[in-house]
Structure formats: C-alpha cells, structure tokens
Amino acid sequence: MNIGIDKIGFYAPPYYVDMVELANERGDDPGKYTVGIGQEQMAVTPLSQDIVSMAVNAALQVINDTDRNKIDLVIVGTESGFDASKSAAVYVHELLGIQPHARSFEIKQACYGATAGLQMAKDYVTLHPDRAALVIGSDVARYGLATGGEVTQGGGAIAMFITANPRILTLEADATFYSRDIMDFWRPSYSEYAMVDGQYSNEQYVAFFAEVWKAYKEKTGRTLSEFEALCFHLPYTKMGKKALSQVLTETDDEKQQALMNHYQASTVLNRNVGNIYTGSLYLSLLSLLTASEALEAGDRIGLFSYGSGAVGEFFSGTLVDGYLKNLPTTKIKELFANRKQISVSQYEDIFSKVLPQDGSELTIPAEEDASPVRLVAVKEHKRFYGIG
Length: 388
Ligand code: CAA
What we know:
With 388 residues, this protein is α+β, with helices and mostly antiparallel strands. The protein has two domains: 3-168 and 327-387, 3-Layer(aba) Sandwich (Peroxisomal Thiolase, Chain A, domain 1), CATH 3.40.47; 171-324, Peroxisomal Thiolase, Chain A, domain 1 (3-Layer(aba) Sandwich), CATH 3.40.47.10. The chain has 13 helices and 18 strands. Bound molecules: acetoacetyl-coenzyme A (CAA).
C-alpha cells in the first residue's frame, strides 16, 4: 500500500519587504543578502495573521467536505506557538470544521516538527488506509530588527493531506534520523525572539546532513545517482546548497549538474518568502515540483529535515503519475500576485506591534489583509478568528 502526500497547500502573509532595500537600510552590501544568503523577498506577518490563521489559510487550499470527514489526525508542527498549553491544532480543527472524532495536537522540535508529524501521519494511515491525516507546519521566524538573523526571517504555512494511494508523492519507509543536544538555535519561553549561534548553526546543519546521509546509504544501499533531486530545510537558500555541495562529488558531472538545477528550482518560493521554519522543507518540495519541468513520475526525491537543538532526518519519496495536476500552481501564483511590497520602515512598524498581554481587548483591523481567515480580536487573553 502506498502512503504519502495527496495534496499540499501554501500560505504566506500579505506583505513582503525587498531584500535589496533592507540591505541598503542596514548599511550592508545587497549582494550579501541576495547572493551570500540567497534571499530576495521576506514575508512580513501583520497582527491579523498568526500560526493558527496561517495554518487554516494553507489547509483551506487542500481540503474539501469529503476530506473533512476522513481526517483522523490534525497535527501542527510549530516553534512559534503562542500558548504553552493549548495546541494550535485544536483551533485549526475547529476553524476547518473537521469531523469531531479526530486527534488534534501540536509537535515541537524546532523546524523538525512537521516532519515528525508527517512520519506519524504516514504510520497512522498505513494502519488505517481508509482514513487520512492533515499535517501542517506554521511559523513566524523572528530574530529582531537589525540583528544578524534578521535577513533570515519570514513567515508562512504549509498544509499536507496524507492518504493511501496519494496523488503527488509516495513516501518510502527509508528514513534515517539523528538527535544530539546542542545549543545552535533556541527560544526560551519568555522570549519573543529566537536566540542563535549563527555560524555554529550553519556548521551543525551541514554535519547533521552528513550524518543522516551516511546512515541512509548504509541502511538502504542507495547512492546519490539514484536521486533526481534533493530538497532541504531552507532557513535561507544558500544553506541547502552548502549541504548538497559536500556530497555532489559522489556522482558524475552530468548528474551533479542535474541535481544543482533541481536545487535551484527547489529554492524559488523560499527565496521570496524567507524562513518559515517547520514548513520550510515542504515549501522547498512544492517549489521544486512547481518550478521544474524536468521531473517525471517514478523519480526519487530525497528530503533533509533539520530542527535545531537538534534533530536531523533524511527520507525519500517517489513522484506519482499525474502529480502536476494536483499541485496548487494557480493558487500560488495568485498568492504572490496579491502580496503587497512594503517599505523597510513599514516593515519595522508592523514588526514592532504586539498583542496586549494584560488581558485587555484589541480589535485588529484587516487593513490590506484579504486572507480567508484572520485573527480579528483578542480579549481576556483569548484569540478570536474570523472567516471570510
Ligand atoms: N556578496 C556576495 N556574498 C557575500 C557578500 C557580498 N557582498 N558579503 C558576504 N557574502 C557572503 C559570505 O561570504 C557568506 O557566504 P558563505 O556562507 O558561503 O561563506 C554569506 O554571505 C553570509 O555572510 P556571513 O556568514 O558573514 O553572514 P552573517 O555572519 O551575517 O550570518 C547567518 C549569516 C549565520 C545565516 C545569520 O543570518 C543567522 O544567524 N541566521 C539565523 C540562523 C540560521 O538561519 N541558521 C541556519 C542553520 S540552523 C537551521 O537551519 C534552523 C533554522 O531554521 C534557524
């Protein structure tokens, strides 16, 4: 029985800032941002969007009424949760109108959360092939204004509908994983912003990839030549390239070129959104599938997931015949066409706005946010969402 991704949806907030403008404002060479880091636009999340509304906006692209009755698991991977107790998944379950006898919960392990959810969903559907799971990665990446990490901020959500006989990607039972307690990136619960040891996090990302890739080859006997493309967790688009470059010499020149071409295709969306943390690997997969014209059914795609702190995992999937028809290509084009560019000072203004923390009431204006679901108010420490 094949299990995997049947549908995939993506949501990004309605504003973005141009990285050349940001570099100029910060007194940096724009080449550092666009080439050295590899980012062109950065999504900016207004008060009217949070991890719940973004998760629902992404999921609304993929589920219909039949799906609502089939979903047994609603899993949200996030590392920017706003509640240390109640999960984002319970709000998402309600807002989406999913049948009540479902398990809804949140998973946290930095950017690895959605992968843990995906593997759990795959196991569940393997045992219950007539049922389905909804796995979402939703995050806002915040390091702070004018910090070293600022250029790697972003926000957005990915939603994946996991079923038997999937129409996009069949997931293989071949994952290798690796965990080690390190302090490369973390966010104490009292802090709005992530803490990061930037260069150390880069090194550890590459080292974790090397570790799980070696374990994968030993476990499966597969070689790099058997992959059409590798997708990576992309905190910024240069990062995956650093990891890929260290293994490229394991294959011939022609294959190296093909893998690099596919790598470029896998960065198109991420380059214009920024880091979306848990959803980032799956945004890269979506980018590859929508941007590359050189893929076909049966092709094997490798996926590297990395969650600081840290857990790494490598696994693969094979493309299903007709996968192109099930991609949200038009919706993605509309989403990007409807985004509004804002100036650096407007971004700073939006970034600095916070919700009340004393229980007082705030009604949040929609402004230019025409997204289907928005955070509309907070009152007595409770969040209220509006649909339509
Ligand atoms: N033109 C072209 N390239 C230039 C340039 C120019 N004018 N100026 C600099 N560069 C290049 C540098 O040579 C460097 O390239 P290499 O990495 O290939 O050597 C690149 O631009 C970045 O320059 P720096 O290393 O000097 O940049 P920095 O010290 O300001 O920090 C960063 C970069 C560490 C990524 C920082 O933005 C950061 O801390 N980001 C957050 C942490 C992060 O994203 N870590 C990634 C791994 S952890 C992870 O994956 C989990 C997660 O999601 C956070």
